């Protein structure tokens, strides 16, 4: 009698006959055997999720993205160690749904207005980084002994950076609205568009496809045209009224969104296209509606949960022996991503007239490969264009670069202090693009206002009747434009830039007011003012008594509490300091 192992993979826990038979003297019906199989799968999946949670807690303590923890979980539960999973159908199914939801959300946030707002610097930097990274990565991979087809795959995988990780890190550092943050998010959008095109092209030219290159290209154009036209028609005539009815029930709206994403993915796969692109176009068809934000906010948690299974599946399929043999190429490629990618961005932004610090902070966001790189590697394996050893190599590069680049981004200010002199070669004598939004300075400056957000703008409005000469400073280009539209003299500046204080007109200034909520930023400003010999008053912003004591110790003559001091009272205090 033929026996088979049940469970998620090679780590099955019992043997069952393919037909009704006896195990240890007991006969099992087919329904009983299926129930035992599902019970075993459920227990192993539950244990895997518990392990993923524990490793995720450790990753968070080490300030690492959860992607690293999930891949390590897959390695632990894979056949090489615990043997709970070996890329079974259950994991693959959940990971496929996760990828579909991920691509659906990418398409959902890709409307025409967002593309227009990216700007020339994000477009030039994004395209330039893709071209140069692909070219240099291809040459490096060829030098490491890979075939041209594999070299193209690996080079393309080295190109893309993780939007999810970067946005999270920039948000945690409160730099998402800074100049380098906006540029970084802009060229990550460009990368997202490029990765979709790469998926289409790689899926079209399969290794085992029948017909010549021309036939494959013709099929790609025809099928792609049908999908794009169908998406456009759905976007124009179907989705607005349909979503308007479904929106009366939020649960039904979310269910429809998931069904639409997975359904289009399945349809694309059935016509030998790309299920990833099908899910992406499903998101695009809803992107122009007023319901996209509601759908996106509700699907983000589901996306993160389902992507867990993709990374676990990826880690469980990692061949540790093959990864050991690929250690030297992985280290070489990781150094290229960690060092070469940021330098490419710094060079491009330097040519476009940006300071070296802005270029470095934006460039550090491309010092890792993304989840899309791993998805592309898995796609190449599925299409027969990559081997398992190649996927193991790309996964190993992902673990190294994601782990190290996280610390590079978190410690970007200290990294710049070490590199500011060597990076001078990339900066023009006149960084015209960075100071484009600045106004001509007045001869006399009474108050320098650092931070033009809600509190800073309110203080500005209250100071206007006092006929004072004000200079507004901010690192958010949009805030500068809005302040300039109100008639304020503005200047671009980042308080955490070591060269920031030297750019301020301190000699004719009486009061420097910081509305920034960060004690670290206010400490840097106070230190810079003292180093420059500023003899006026420094007014800082705090949120509690502990911060007040800290700022006074650092040299602030006055502290403002936004929750207690309204803008009107803050303006009175500032005027008193001027008269004082």
Description:
By secondary structure, this protein is α/β, with parallel strands linked by helices. Helices cover 64% and strands 6% of the residues. The protein is built from 23 helices and 10 strands. It has helices at residues 30-61, 66-77, 89-108, 112-117, 119-143, 148-157, 163-172, 179-204, 213-246, 250-270, 275-287, 292-316, 320-325, 327-351, 356-363, 371-382, 388-410, 412-419, 454-463, 477-485, 519-531, 545-554, 567-579; strands at 3-5, 15-17, 22-23, 26-27, 447-450, 470-474, 489-492, 511-514, 537-541, 558-560. It has a 6-stranded parallel beta sheet with strand order 7-6-5-8-9-10, sandwiched between helices. It has a two-stranded antiparallel sheet with strand order 1-2. Strand 3 and strand 4 (26-27) form a beta hairpin. Helix 8 packs across helix 15 (356-363). Mean pLDDT is 80; it is low at 1-23.
Core attributes:
580 residues; 23 helices; six-stranded parallel β-sheet; 64% helix; two-stranded antiparallel sheet; single chain; 6% strand; disordered N terminus; alpha/beta
Provide the fold topology.
Elements: E1 3-5, E2 15-17, E3 22-23, E4 26-27, H1 30-61, H2 66-77, H3 89-108, H4 112-117, H5 119-143, H6 148-157, H7 163-172, H8 179-204, H9 213-246, H10 250-270, H11 275-287, H12 292-316, H13 320-325, H14 327-351, H15 356-363, H16 371-382, H17 388-410, H18 412-419, E5 447-450, H19 454-463, E6 470-474, H20 477-485, E7 489-492, E8 511-514, H21 519-531, E9 537-541, H22 545-554, E10 558-560, H23 567-579
Parallel strand pairs: 5-6, 5-8, 6-7, 8-9, 9-10
Antiparallel strand pairs: 1-2, 3-4
Helix pairs in contact: 1-2, 2-12, 3-10, 3-11, 3-12, 5-6, 5-8, 5-14, 6-16, 7-8, 8-15, 8-16, 9-11, 10-11, 14-15, 14-17, 16-17, 19-23, 21-22
């Amino acid at each position: 009698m033929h026996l088979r192992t049940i469970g998620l993979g090679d780590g099955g826990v019992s043997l069952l006959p393919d037909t009704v038979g006896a195990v240890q003297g007991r006969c099992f019906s087919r329904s009983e055997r299926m129930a035992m199989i599902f019970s075993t799968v459920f227990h192993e999946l539950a244990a895997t999720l518990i392990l993923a949670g524990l490793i995720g807690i450790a990753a968070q303590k080490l300030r690492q993205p959860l992607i690293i923890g999930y891949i390590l979980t897959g390695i632990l539960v894979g056949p090489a160690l615990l043997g709970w999973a070996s890329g079974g159908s259950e994991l693959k199914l959940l990971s496929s749904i996760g990828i579909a939801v991920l691509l659906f959300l990418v398409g959902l946030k890709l409307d025409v207005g967002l593309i227009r707002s990216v700007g020339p610097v994000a477009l030039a930097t994004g395209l330039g980084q893709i071209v140069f990274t692909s070219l240099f990565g291809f040459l490096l991979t060829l030098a490491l002994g890979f075939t041209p087809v594999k070299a193209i795959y690996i080079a393309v995988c080295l190109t893309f950076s993780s939007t999810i990780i970067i946005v999270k890190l920039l948000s945690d550092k409160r730099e998402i609205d800074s100049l380098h943050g906006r540029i970084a998010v802009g060229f990550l959008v460009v990368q997202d568009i490029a990765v979709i095109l790469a998926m289409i092209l790689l899926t079209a030219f399969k290794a085992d496809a029948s017909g010549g290159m021309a036939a494959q290209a013709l099929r790609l154009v025809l099928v792609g045209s049908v999908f794009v036209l169908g998406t456009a028609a759905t976007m124009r005539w179907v989705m607005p009224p349909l979503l308007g009815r479904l929106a009366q029930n939020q649960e039904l709206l979310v269910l429809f969104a998931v069904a639409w994403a997975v359904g289009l993915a399945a349809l694309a796969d059935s016509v030998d296209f790309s299920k990833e692109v099908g899910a992406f176009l499903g998101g695009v068809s809803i992107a122009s509606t007023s319901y996209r934000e509601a759908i996106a906010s509700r699907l983000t948690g589901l996306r993160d949960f389902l992507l867990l299974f993709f990374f676990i599946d990826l880690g469980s399929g990692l061949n540790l022996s093959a990864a050991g043999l690929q250690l030297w190429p992985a280290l070489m490629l990781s150094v290229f991503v960690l060092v070469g990618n940021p330098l490419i961005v710094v060079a491009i932004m330097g040519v476009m007239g940006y300071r070296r610090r802005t270029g470095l902070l934006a460039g550090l966001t491309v010092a890792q490969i993304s989840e899309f790189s791993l998805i592309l590697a898995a796609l190449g394996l599925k299409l027969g264009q990559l081997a398992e050893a190649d996927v193991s190599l790309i996964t190993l590069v992902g673990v190294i670069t994601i782990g190290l680049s996280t610390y590079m981004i978190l410690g970007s200010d200290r990294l710049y202090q070490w590199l500011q002199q060597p990076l001078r070669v990339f900066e023009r004598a006149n960084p015209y693009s960075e100071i484009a939004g600045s106004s001509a300075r007045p001869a006399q400056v009474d108050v320098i206002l650092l931070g033009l957000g809600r509190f800073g703008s309110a203080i500005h409005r209250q100071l206007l009747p006092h006929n004072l000469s004000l200079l507004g400073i901010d690192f958010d280009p949009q805030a500068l434009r809005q302040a300039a539209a109100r008639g304020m003299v503005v200047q671009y500046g980042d308080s955490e830039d070591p060269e920031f204080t030297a750019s301020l007109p301190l000699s004719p200034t009486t009061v420097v007011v910081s509305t920034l909520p960060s004690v670290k930023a206010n400490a840097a400003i106070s230190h810079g003012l003292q180093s420059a010999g500023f003899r006026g008053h420094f007014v800082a912003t705090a949120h509690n008594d502990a911060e007040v004591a800290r700022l006074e110790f650092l040299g602030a003559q006055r502290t403002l509490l936004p929750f207690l001091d309204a803008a009107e009272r803050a303006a009175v205090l500032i005027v008193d300091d001027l008269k004082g």
